[in-house]
Design brief:
This is DNA-binding transcriptional LysR family regulator. By secondary structure, this protein is of the alpha/beta class. The protein folds into 3 domains: 82 residues, Arc Repressor Mutant, subunit A; 100 residues, Periplasmic binding protein-like II (D-Maltodextrin-Binding Protein, domain 2), CATH 3.40.190.10; 91 residues, Periplasmic binding protein-like II (D-Maltodextrin-Binding Protein, domain 2, 3-Layer(aba) Sandwich). The protein is 40% helix and 24% strand. The chain is built from 9 helices and 12 strands. The protein is globular and about 70 Å long.
């Protein structure tokens, strides 16, 4: 039994389908299927039931899963510890953040870092999911809530300000309750996000005409005159054709946190990146008055 085969078993168990597991490990589906059959033959047990909805663990597969997860945790710990001892300012740094934060807040800092340290390769993963630092899906993460993962070193980086925006030149309806106004909101997966709820409260009679899980898409729709959007100020500043509107109060802002696994705390390229990020962004609040 080889660890590489157990990694394939784990990926299939975690993702539920061969296709998703293959994408996760950057392998082909036929290779994944062949390696799984080799593992099952070696163990003498069927580890998954093949159903129309995907792969479901058998009793034997469930028994193996716990052992494989502990082996993975040890293997990842070895990788992190060895990576943390590397003293060269070169290699890969994998960073994760939301799409708009990566595009409009991080990229100027990352561009400066690349000039200062050309031997370090930056991989920026903009994803709505919270990638795991313990599993080394990312080395550094920027999130809008405190980290609760064990063994993660984190700090509050900045407070992000938001404002309400409308296409420049469009008169905002005078009705204080939003009658006649159109709103651009986040989709249902983000229900209850403070700034989105604030907009609904400030304009209760307005009609929501568009929803998206992307702040950038909201900004573009706002620039096309579709309706009112609440946007982070750096994103709005980078979007031509929109202007802030006064609804009486400012939307609630959001804190942004940065975190990394403690095993990487001595990694020189990580320390260099964090020093630059903190120097450029940790100013207490992001967004001009």
């Amino acid at each position: 039994m080889e660890w590489s085969d157990l990694r394939i078993f784990l990926a299939i168990a975690q993702e539920g389908t061969l296709g998703a597991a293959a994408r996760k490990l950057a392998q082909t589906q036929p290779t994944m299927g062949r390696r799984l059959r080799v593992l099952e033959d070696a163990l003498g047990h069927t580890l998954f039931q093949r159903t129309k909805d995907g792969f479901v663990l058998t009793d034997e597969g469930s028994t193996l899963l716990g052992h494989a997860e502990r082996m993975e945790a040890e293997a990842l710990a070895i990788e992190r510890r060895l990576a943390g001892q590397t003293q060269q300012l070169e290699g890969l740094l994998r960073i994760t953040s939301s799409d708009w934060f990566g595009a409009h807040v991080l990229t100027p800092v990352l561009a400066e870092f690349s000039v200062l340290h050309p031997k370090v390769t930056i991989e920026l993963l903009t994803d709505a999911r919270f990638l795991s630092l313990s599993r080394r899906e990312a080395d550094v993460a920027f999130r809008i809530r405190p980290f609760d993962e064990p063994d993660v070193v984190s700090r509050k980086l900045l407070h992000m300000r938001y404002r309400a925006y409308l296409r420049r030149g469009i008169a905002h309806p005078m009705a204080g309750d939003g009658t006649g106004s159109a709103l651009l909101a986040l989709d249902s997966a983000f229900a209850g996000v403070p700034d989105d709820s604030w907009l609904q409260t400030m304009l209760p009679k307005a009609r929501t005409v568009f929803r998206s899980n992307s702040r950038d898409v909201q900004a573009r729709m706002c620039a096309h005159g579709v309706g009112i959007a609440v946007l982070p100020i750096p994103l709005a500043d980078a979007t031509a054709g929109i202007e802030p509107i006064d609804l009486g109060t400012e939307p609630p802002g959001r804190d942004t946190w940065v975190g990394y696994h403690r095993d990487l705390r001595r990694l020189p390229r990580l320390r260099a990146l964090l020093e630059l990020v903190i120097a450029r962004l940790a100013n207490g609040s992001s967004g001009r008055q």
